[in-house]
Structure formats: structure tokens, C-alpha cells
Amino acid sequence: MTKTRWRKAGALDSIEPLRYDIDVKIAIIGGGIGGLTTALALRHFGFEPEVYEQAPELLDVGAAIAMWPNALRVLFKLGVGQKVLEHSGVIERIRWQHRTGKFFNQTRLPINAVPAVALHRADLQSVLLHALPGNSIHLGHAFAGCQQEHGAIRINFTSQAPVHCDLLIGADGLHSQLRNQLLDGAAPSYRGYTVWRGIAGRPPKGLEPATATEIYGRGQRFGIGPVGNGRIGWWASANEKDACQRAATTEQQALLKLFDAWCSPVCELISATPTEAIFRNKVLDRAPTQSWGLGPMTLLGDSIHPTTPNLGQGGCMAVEDAAVLARCLAKESNPALAFRAYEKCRYSRTAGVADCSRLYGNIGQWDSRLGSWARGVTLSIIPEMVTRQLLKLIFDYDAFTVRI
User: Fold this and answer.
1) Superfamily of domain 21-188+285-395
2) What is the Cβ-side half-sphere exposure of residue 77, based on CA atoms within 13 angstroms?
3) What is the DSSP letter of 252?
4) DSSP secondary structure string for all residues of 60-95
5) Where are the domains of the chain?
6) Cα(379)–Cα(299) distance, integer angstroms
7) Which of 234, 208, 228 is nearest to 108 (CA)?
8) pLDDT, tens digit, 9 for 90 and up, residues 293-343
9) Cα–Cα dist 111/171, whole Å
10) What pTM does this model have?
11) What local confidence, expressed as pLDDT, does residue 249 receive?
């Protein structure tokens, strides 16, 4: 067994990797957070995976992403945690309030050797990329299908020559093409509201440091938190029956109208974010399924268990997946059995987090006068001890020690 060495004052060393003499070709479809973390985790155990990403280049775009302790713990053990911290804003407490500014409640996060942080998604992707060999990342490879032939898997791309591998891992996101081939082509479910995300380069005056704030209105919410380097990340949500697309140039004005008269610094943050840097998405997820793959092929992250953004756990679940999958492959010499063990281990955890996130979002989007009042009263009376215990159920999970 590998032993973790802990420094004093809560800092962490990376685990010394176990090395295996395994000559197996592993391909990962998707170069996002899940795909890159999976590649890093597999290399930790001696494998040499190749990543195939459809984008021709990885641009410095995107909004904030939370790395709660359950995910950051994995990144530390893979040797990149300190680099992630250097780009992050640390979150020490969570605060809830009404759109008028009325205070509901707050809680300090459970004291842990690993903090809760948020950072620009591009910064996290950059840290992971620089931890991997450049020649193992193949851009401009849009997945077009696969088939098993002569004991190997042939992967076809839309504009690149096919490649062959022994094991195939799909980390290609919510609209995964590999999932469509392995499972079904059913569309994800729209949950009735839209989320906008942005990062403001200058923090408003009076903003509480190291605090994530969630502000409630009727059918609308607004979230605020530090993302490192003096920047503030924010998100907004609003109920929309149809969620029709609008021109990107109108998003800022639409948001300022939606959140007009909300307490400070809601409109200040929206105004401080260039309209082209405001990202808008319908909130989608899928019902849990126990079928994740077939033979020497499996899926991870949003490709198999997409999660609504309400708990900030979508990226964290993919990071956990990566660690458990790599451990299963290192432990079990039969890859198909390893993949089924990984899927069995992860099913209840990911389904539970997705269900909780969906419920939390549904309550957060209540738009009736009575529902909004009841939500505010409930938030105000929940003891901090109860909130902290609920958070520990998520944060204390350790993907490197969970039984597989």
C-alpha cells in the first residue's frame, strides 16, 4: 500500500506513485478537466495514456470552477495541488442572504488539511496540461465512432487518421459521442432554469474575503466567490421555460434588467464583466444509470453522470472518477473487470451527489411568494452544526482510500 506523507500545518506531499510494468494502450476522449485528470492519475500508476481533444487549441476561456476538498485532495496526491492553490481563491465560509441584503445564515467550512477553493477553469486546465507530456495531448481530434477489431479498439475521427488502443475512456462531456454509441442517444433533461457565469477583474468594495455568498430572489439566485489573483467569480440563475438562445452581446443587458434593484454588489459584478466573457447555459442533467460502459470501454464525469451546478460538484466528481478509475486499473489485471469495479464503486456516490444537487437547485429556484418565504425561514433556522455535518458527507470523501 502507498502511504501518504503529510507536512505540518496541513500542507501535503504528493504520494509516491506505484509503478507497474504494464504495456497497454489507453486512449482518453476529451481534454477537459476530467480527461486531463484521468491522464495524470493513470500516469501516477505507471500507465501512459493518450488524450484526444476535438478543439484545435485549448483557449484561455471559461468561468470559475470550484475544487472542494474532496477534489483538491486528489490533485494534491497527484502532485499538482500546490500549483492549483497558487491560482485559487480560498473559501472559508458560505453565506446565504435575501436579494434585499437581509442576512439568512452562514457557516464556516469544516476545518480540513485541504481547503475549499475556486479558480478560473482555464487556470486549472493549464496546471493539468503542464503536468502531462506535451506529446500525449492530441488536439483537433473530433471523435466520430469506434469499433473493436482484431483484439483492439479502432477510434475514428472526423478529420484525422484513426488510431488503435486497448482501452477507451470517454471524458467528452455532457453531449458525449462515445456515450451515444455505448448507451443511448437520449437527450439530457432540462431542469427549467438557466445559469450565467462570469469573472470580474476587480472586486467590489466591502466584499467579505474568503466567502462564497448565495443570494435568493423569487425564481432567481446570484452567487459570488473569490477565484484568485484578485478576481471575483459570479453566477446567476433564473427560471426560463424555453431558454431560447440570445446573441452574446445582449447577455449583460439582459442580466442587469433581471437583477435590477438587487443588493450590492450584484449589478456591479455584472457590469464589471465584459459581455463576451459572460457564459450562458441551460441547466441539464440525466437520471442516474448503472450502465457506464462495455468491455474495455467506460465513461466518466459529465459524459455519464452530469450534475447540475448547484453544489459546485460537477468537476469534482470527474476528478474523483479519475482517481478511482486509475486505482481499479492498477489493482485488476483484467481491464474489463477493472472498469466494472470502477463503475460499481462510483455509482452510488455520483448518483447521490447529483440527486442532492438537483433538489437543492429546485428549492433555490422556487418562485412563489410562499415558497420563497419558507425557504428563507428554513435557511435562517438551520443550525451551523447541521450544515457542517452535511458538507462533511461530501468533503470527507477520499478517492484514493475508498474501498474498491
Assistant:
1) FAD/NAD(P)-binding domain (3.50.50.60)
2) 28
3) H
4) S---EEEE-HHHHHHHHHTT-HHHHHHT-EEE-EEE
5) 21-188+285-395
6) 37
7) 208
8) 999 999 999 999 999 999 999 999 999 999 999 999 999 999 999 999 999
9) 32
10) 0.93
11) 66
